[in-house]
Design a protein that fits this description.
Length: 578
Amino acid sequence: MQKQIIRREAGPGTHDFSADLPQLLARIYSARNVSSDRELNRQLKGLHHYTSLKGIDVAASLLADAIIAGQNILIVGDFDCDGATSSALGVLALRAMGGNANYLVPNRFEYGYGLTPEIVEVSRQYKPDVLVTVDNGISSIDGVAAARAEGWKVVVTDHHLAGRELPQADAIVNPNQPDCPFPGKNTAGVGVIFYVMCALRTELKQRGWFDTDPEFNPFELLDLVALGTVADVVSLDANNRILAHQGLARIRAGRCRPGIRALIEISGRNPERLVAADLGFALGPRLNAAGRLDDMSTGIELLITDNLNSAREIASELDSLNQERKEIESTMQQEALAELDKLQLDDKSQLPVGISLFREDWHQGVVGILASRVKDRLNRPVIAFAESDSGQQDGDIKGSARSIQGLHMRDALDSVARENPGLIIKFGGHAMAAGLSIKKADFPLFVDAFDREVRSQLSNESLEAIILTDGELLVGDMTMETAQMLREAGPWGQNFPEPCFDGLFQIIQQRLVGKKHLKMVLKVPDSEFYLDAIAFNVDTQQWPNLNISTIKVVYKLDINEYRGQTSLQLLVDYFEPA
């Protein structure tokens, strides 16, 4: 798909950067609406304080009571990377502070998402006195009621948007619940439970609990917070950048969990040079593979274990699962695009604006990635559905939704549900991602209803694929020093994107490596400056051989490490004939 290249502009207002900040960085930061050095603070003292989180004092007091009384605390997590890191952090912190803590994560294929009455039934075997949800629970009305009917205390910690009704929990800690003044609305689930553990430590300290035992410091688990925050693709606002930076600093210094070290090894990354993108594109997918294809308990055990050899064995198992996931995803993507080709034919107007896809043989754990891939390719909101495990003709199908700028996915599903009572069984999520369940027989009705809703909200201009850049990079700035400066200026991530640039280059050499990656030698026109470049996962049908001399390239400045040697290279995000 041809994309429109648009250069970012500086944010509004004046900018108060220090005089020694390089002009290139000042330009990049201002284009991300950073106006002063204060917003670039990455020290722990710059974090929002937990005391402004609504309900956190009640949660801390309740958990402190449970620890002191020797009661059983059960963490109920989620089956993605945020849920796994949240579960591991909660268990590790509670145990370090003297608590009797265990965890339970629903198997997505048997129970689906969140604290349900069925999961409460499974929880009985752990004989909990207190049940704590992490990265879920804000929509678990029936599940919380069932847990309290058992006589258990319930603490909900979550970050998802609240619905019209809140669960009747003993405490709710969620920055996105009504009337919560905490400014960090983009905090991931792992960040929320991290804050709860900070408040709990303070509560226990005030009660004299650590007078004889060493005091636990939750900051020791910031590597988990960084991994979950980046992998969950929450907005890297100033607060989340501090959490990610501090967690990465611990990893680079060799002070991370054995499980994270094992993931770094199996993914072939250098721990001393790890960046946020490695968390999101190398470690996160391997951890997520457990929840997508098997059971996220495997991933949580990886993060909890203190034994590096055990961690390496589990990481190897997750790496194999991730390879299997890639193969399944590739097949599903080919099938999805074939279905869309039938709709589109030669007339793009035949393609739905809001796309819904379903095949009975698709894998339930991979539809989220499929929706994301098709969304990226077509720049349209996409929901991919798969059969639930019931397999009945009139059974439920479960969908995973991904959106584009301009459409709030959860609100769009809410509107579809209100306009079509009974069509959606349940739903929840964020602006850019959501999940839902419908009856298989209702899929054709949903296809039309979702498309109508998306058409009512998005203009034709919204569907034009654009790519934002930080403008042109001068030859004098194409250096290893600049690449290192940009790497250290992060962490970069969602809504705080890694700097990318555009420019014209002449193709000197080109070859395919690994069957789908394009390796090139590029030359800056009217100069004698040559650069290595690589474009990953190119469409080989569209570009079987670049027989043109000059291309327009959108790229990131990168440092390539190979056999102990480092060299400058361009990571090509997009290219087209000049």
